[in-house]
Each structure stands twice: as structure tokens, then as C-alpha cells.
Batch of 4 targets.
Target 1
Amino acid sequence: MLLTLVLTAGCARNPNVEIVGSYFPGWMISLALGVALTALAHLLLRRQGLLHSVGHPAIIHPALVVLLTCLLWLCFFA
């Protein structure tokens, strides 16, 4: 019984967010914001002329999406 309580202690807080009457999981909102922030970073890098100096976009952009998604989730839902 005590082991069950310890293992389910992390489930006490529901990371869902209500938006216009519907509940969305926190990871989905973090992913959408991570993609949007990556697009914004792409535009800023292109405007500054630094897009070719940061690396190949096929590697940098997915990595940036994962990084920003995890950071947003940790900041707001963990």
C-alpha cells in the first residue's frame, strides 16, 4: 500500500490546461509553442544572415523544437 502511494505521488497534479472549454495536455501546448518559437528563431537567424553558420537546418530545427518543447514543459508544467 505504501509503495503504491509513493509510486503514484507524481500523478497528483493533472497537467491539463483548459482552453475554450476543452482540456489539452501540457505537452501538446508546449510542442505547439516550441514549433512556433523555432519558426521565430528561423526568421530571426535568416534576417541576421546567420542561418548558414548555425548548421544544417535538418539537424538544427528538430533539435531546437525538442529543446524548446522540453524547456517550456519543465517551466510551466513540471
Target 2
Amino acid sequence: MLNRLLVAGAMLLAFGAMTVNTQARSLDEIITSGTVRIGVNPNQPPSSSLGKTNEYEGFDIDIGNRIAEAIGVKVEFVPTESAQRVPFLVADRIDLSLGALTRNPERAKLIDYTVPLHTEATSVLTTDKLNITSWKELNDPKYTIVNQRGNNSVGFLKELLPNVNVLLVETTADVVRALAQGRADALVENIDFFLGTTKSYPDVKWKVLPEIIDVAYDGIGVQKGNDSLRLFLNVLLYNMHSSEFVNQTWEKWYGAPPVVKIVPNPYF
């Protein structure tokens, strides 16, 4: 959590002087133009990436197509790396941003969010070989936790679990392989992104500790003050959650249900 705030704060400072506010297109203007511009991260499968046919595919792409269908326009997916999402909104280069945009106060100074689209749940993924009931029990040199190099959690886990051994690997598949092969005891991270890969090891008895360490809520970002678009998206998201479209789309791409589901709320 601390690292998330630090990253967001650095982003605020880095882009505060670089971006110039350009008036966002209202919902009516998007409808008139016939196209909605949606920011997605093309290097974040299965959220979004270029598939074998060189077309975008993934969870965010299905969500984006559903949004465009509901507005009644065509969709233009605009590639945005993580650090570009907020500046692209501020500069009106996109109408809305997907790409696992975690809500936090620093970003909320620059953009507006819809109600949550999905969550990011930090918990413990392990196997039946590890007999613990809380993540804090991992603070012991007899244990090894594995993580993906570059994840935000790598930093704060060093502070919260200073005694545990840490094995850093390069990919999601490497993380799950290390657990399956017994080279590590547990993963402490946003485990939604790893659960689907556990199916590659059907003989391993996987388990997720019921304790949720942290839940981040990811909304759809729009330019600050673009209430006509934000309120439309809120209504659409209520319908997409109530109909289970979001959860079913998530499970289609991530291979498992969300660890923490969004509870639809008609009051926003």
C-alpha cells in the first residue's frame, strides 16, 4: 500500500507540470463523433494484449466493447502504459481509462473515477504443504516467499516480513512454478492474477488463506468534471455487475472468480 502511494505521488509530481488540461468530450459529443477512445495497457495480459491475430484481446477489451455497444458507437483502443493513463485523460487523448486503474487520493486530485469495476485482493497463495493461518507467520527464515520482480508488494513485504527469504522471478508463470516445485512456500500479492496459472499444476493441492491483507478498488477513469460520461458509466456498471457480466468476463480471462467480488450498489 505504501509503495502504491509513493508511486502515485511521484506520478503526480512528474506529470503535474507536463500536462495541460484540455476539455474532455461529453457523452453527447462522443455519441456525435461515433467513436469512444478507451485507454488500455497492451502489455498486461490477460487484462489486455495483442493476440495472435494482432487484435486486442482480454478482460479490458471485452469491457471496452460492452461500453461502446451501450453508448452506441465504435471503439478505438488507445495503448497506454501505466504511467500514461492519468496524463492521457488530462490531455483529452482518451475519453476513459481501463488498465487496472486503482483508486487512490493522489490520482483523485487529477481525475474522476466511476464506481469500482473490479478489485485487487492481496492474500496468500500456497499449497497444502504450508501449515499457517496468517500471513504474519511467514516472518520466519525457514520460509521463502516468491514474487514477480517489479511488483509493488516486493518493497513493502521487505518491511513487513523482514525475516523471510525472498525469491524473485520474472513472470507470473515462474511464480506459480516455483510454488508448485516447492522452491518457495507462498506468494503474498494480488493473487487474482496468478490463480488461473495454478491450473497448469492439477496435482498440486493449492490453497488460498481466507485472510485478506488488502483490497484495492479499481474504477474507470474519466477527466475531472466529465460528469455526463462518469454518471452514464456508473449506471452501466451497475447493470454489468448485477447481470454478472463483469464476474463472468473476469473468470473467462483470469481462469478463476475474483477473490473479492464487487457488490452492486444502485446508489452512487
Target 3
Amino acid sequence: MLRVRTRSSPRMTALAKLLEAALFAALRPISEADLARLEPEAGVDGVRRALDELRAHYDDPEAGHAVELVEQGGGWQLLTRAEYAEAIERAQIAERPQRLTAAALETLAVIAYRQPIGRAEVEEIRGVAVGGVLKTLVERGLVDVVGRAEGLGRPLLYGTTPRFLEQFALRHLEELPRADELAVALRANPATL
């Protein structure tokens, strides 16, 4: 087991310290319900208070932490602050995100904005077959089958996953840019998944 010395404020509650340890060890965002299982007596309300305490700890400008507590992808995660991302990526210390093709990004955008949606509808909107692209998005865990449509053959319906939210640093789908903002957002942040 990896043990790393971290310095936490002696003023932090025991629950905040426990959450800090769990978030440090996790590879993915952890939901409040899952965090509450660490200390069932605290409940979700207690976890929320401890998360607020932990976030205040990491946001304290005098402490100058290089990591921050972020809510995204349906949970909470300790992440490196954005200002250090370029240096860490340049040194190839962290796992490098895989890039998506323009076709994959377009398909992902159609699914994100129109979900739940069937393959035929995505193909109608894009004007091309998307079978291979859709398979890639499912393999990467960005979209998944969320149900079946009514009608002939009951085709599969696709929607985005918590990993999609995590990769795009979103807490929920309502944070997606409006359609008129999307073109600007894609130009500013090229395909880096």
C-alpha cells in the first residue's frame, strides 16, 4: 500500500481527514453516498459539511495548496490545480488523455445534447455511419446504452456516462455550454480526451 505523508491542518475534523485520505487514494470521483459509507454515523449531511471544510482547507490562499477539491462526474475528487497541468503533462508524469477524432467529438456532442438517442438518429444528424465511432466511445466509457426506444426492433438508446462528466470537468449535464457557445468552446479546447 502506498503511504504518502501529507500535512493536514490540526483544525480539520476527523471526518474531513478521513475523506481526504479516501479522495487521495481514489482514481475516480467518489459520490457523497459512497463517502458516507466511510463513516455511516455522519450521514450524507455530515459528509457535505466535511467536504465544505476540506474544500476551504485546500482553497486557503495562505496554505498555497497545489491541489484542489473538485466536484465533477457525479462525485468529488482531489485534482492538481490547472496552472500545473501543462508542466506535469510536459514531464509525462501523469497519464496523458487520449485524443478523440473530430468524428468522435461530433458524435459525442450529438449524444450529449440529444440523449437518450439511437444510432440511426445520430447518423441522420451527422449524415454518416457512426457504428465504429460509437463503439469507440462506448469502449472509452464516455457513452453507454441507457435504454431501448419504442417501435420496430426496439433500437438501443445511448447517453453519456459519469466518465464523460469527469473528462469534461462537469458536475452535471446542465453545465454543458449552450449550442451557440459550443463552437467557441471547441476552438478554445481542442480534442484532448
Target 4
Amino acid sequence: MKAQILESFGGPNAFELSEVAKPVPQAGQVLVRVHATSINPLDYQVRRGDYVDYVPLPAITGHDVSGVVEAVGPGVTSFVPGDEVWYTTQIFEGDGSYAEYHVASESIIGKKPASLSHLEAASLTLVGGTVWEALVGRVSLRVGESILIHGGAGGVGHVAIQVAKAIGARVFTTVREANFEFARGLGADVVIDYEQEDYVDAILRETDGHGVDVIFDTIGGDTLTRSPDALAQLGRVVSIVDIAKPQNLIQAWGKNASYHFVFTRQNRGKLDELSALVERGQLRPHVGAVFSLADISSAHALLETPNNGLRGKIAIAVEPSLIP
């Protein structure tokens, strides 16, 4: 099978398209013919060597899969060949999804929502699972609460807006002016042009000085340290960002704020919850660009470029017929 191999850590051109042996499913495992995957910030962080202690080389990286079951190992009871499935690969464990085939434990695989294409499904597994774990599993966002979602036009943010609206929250988000209608179309109640106005000032104005109940941080740094200024008393902050540098969170003390940090864990339960939202028409990923498996370096370069203007996710069409 063809796979993109990372022989050494480096820039977007570090990948090499190679022929490797097709994996064989062992007990409890499923062999999936990968139709699509996608690119996340985690993918380029792995590629450039941010996690050298966790990624032995050479490696097949990549974390999203949408595809079709090709074969099952002994003891598998949930799937049969021909099933359409989606899942996030085990992060920092085994091979990833930049390949024509992938094997995974049946415990982390879900049935792909019928209404999503493979490109859409592969764009939702990791970001959707992360958002679900953050908003439902950690901060328990409730009906009628308010939430600020940083980066609402991005791969994670555009999913977070939809999930927060499905829960019944009032959603504030930061985007550029060019993405106002996109964010409103996803369900955002208040959009803030972060290039023209300080988000703390905007939140305090819109909430009569009370602040929001929850802040969902996808950026880190200054965005994380200043978040307490936009929080209500007893507010909660949940961040999905790798915090490499010490953060001064003293302002959170006066708000009796709680902080949560999410490194998502794979399981079928989250996929089934996301699937229910998809089938009710409350959640749909936006695919902003599509690349082939052979051109994965260009996909990495685009996502890693600051202010790239991209909306939603970059999908990778591993099955050539899916390329637009």
C-alpha cells in the first residue's frame, strides 16, 4: 500500500510517499481501507518534532480516518467487511492515517454517519471528539449559559459553535470581519472582530459587565491569560492548547475560576454522540480545502501558514476518486 512516511522531523516536505506492507488485523482489530483523513495542528506539531519522545521514526502519522472495513481480526463482533466507519487513531500509539489502509481496535471505531461524505467525516473525528470532551465532559456546558469560543472560523472553533448551540448556550466567538456571516451561519449569537476590538471589552459590553460562564480556548498564550477578565464569577475555562510556557493565571483567582486542559481520548461513545447531532442536522463539518495523499506536504504548509484565511478543515482524499 502507499503511505506517507516521516523519516525525519522537519518542514512540510519531510514526508516521502512510499510502498509499505499492508497491515494485518490481529485479535480485536479491524482493517480499514482509508478513504479520507484530515490535517490538524497536532499533525504539523508531530511532523516538526514537538513530541520527539513520543513518536519513534520512521513513522506513519495522521489522526483522522473515514473509510470502509476491509477485514476483521478474531473476536471482532461490532463490524463486518463493507461497513463505513470513522474514528481517531490512537494518538502517540501505532501507525497513523496517512496511508491507504489502517488497523485499529474495534473499541475506538464508530459507524460513519450516512449523511456525511468521507471527506466530511474525516474532518470531524478528532476535532469533534475534542470539542465534545471539552464542552460536555469537562466544563459541563448547560442550557442558557454563555460561552466565548476563540477562533470560531477554524477547524475546531466552527465545530465548537455548533455543539454549543446544540446544547442551548448563548455563543460569542472571535473571528475576522470576513468570517462574520460564516460564524453566524453556524449559530453564533455574537461575533467579535478580534482585529478591530479587544475581545474582553466586547464581552463585558455585551453581558452588561458580567462576563461569560465558559471560555473555550483554542489559541493559548495571551488569549488564555486574559480570559479571566472576560469570565463571570465561578466561570470555567477549557483549553485544548499545548501550554509549553508558564502562564500567569492570577486574575482567575479573584473570579474563583476553574481551568480544564483537554488531551482528547479515543472512544466510540463520543463518536456516537457526534453522529446523533449530525443526523439531527445540528452539526456538519466545513471542508475548506482538499488535497490528495501524494500532496500532503502542501496541506501541511497551508495549515501551518499564519492567517491563511482557511475556514473549517483541510481534508485529504486518500481515495483518488474523492478529489474534486
